[in-house]
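User: I'm new to structure prediction. If I give you an amino acid sequence, what do you actually give back? Let's try with this one:
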Amino acid sequence: MLTLRRVLTAGLTIGGLVAFSLVPATPSLAAGGLVYTVASTSANEEFLYCASYTPGPCTSEGHNQMYVDLGLNNSNVNATVDYELVNGTAQVGVNFYGPSTGEETISGGIGLIDVPLMISGQTTPLTFMIKLTSASPSGNISSVGTETILPGNEIPSDCSMNLVSTESLALTCGNRPAGQQWNFQAMCIHGFYDPTITGNTVTGDGTSTVTCSSFFYHVWDTGNFNVVS
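Assistant: Good question. You get back a string of structure tokens that encode the predicted 3D arrangement of the chain. For your 229 residues, that looks like this:
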């Protein structure tokens, strides 16, 4: 709602009465100070996973998900935004799945857009944009995210993933840069509590293994390569 305040017009009188003019008050945060943001992120088009829980090499590949953060500068406001996926060098229906428009909620200042990626066999990074088209409550929606789809999966080509047992998943790398420190990360699955566990840190070539305790039912069927330094 537009609030009004009276401002005295100095030196102006009409018929002996002081005249006032009406001008808009400065908008408050609730009235028009909300700012919505879309993050820029990247993800590989594929992920490597174990097709079964039989111990052995994990060589199956599936299409990855890209998770794009939404933000709002007032965590006390619950909001809804409409958005559009805008083609760049990455195309909807070719490199990522549609629909090209959608709606998401923001709660506590945080929201998330999930974009399923397609396995297109690309060899170079491709980009598309996410822009906001409307928001409720209204605010600044000028933020645009530039999203990058990377080729292949994020496990380096010199590394192989292996299911040691239902509780243990390992990554072995044989051509890491000299001195690079890295580790392997995977989730341990219970149902209501599924933390990501970090395996041992390796310098150069070697094996990093994630082993879940007996509290968990099993290790997850995929994991992440993580550079420490």
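You can read the tokens as a compact description of the fold. Here is one thing that stands out. The chain has a mean pLDDT of 87.
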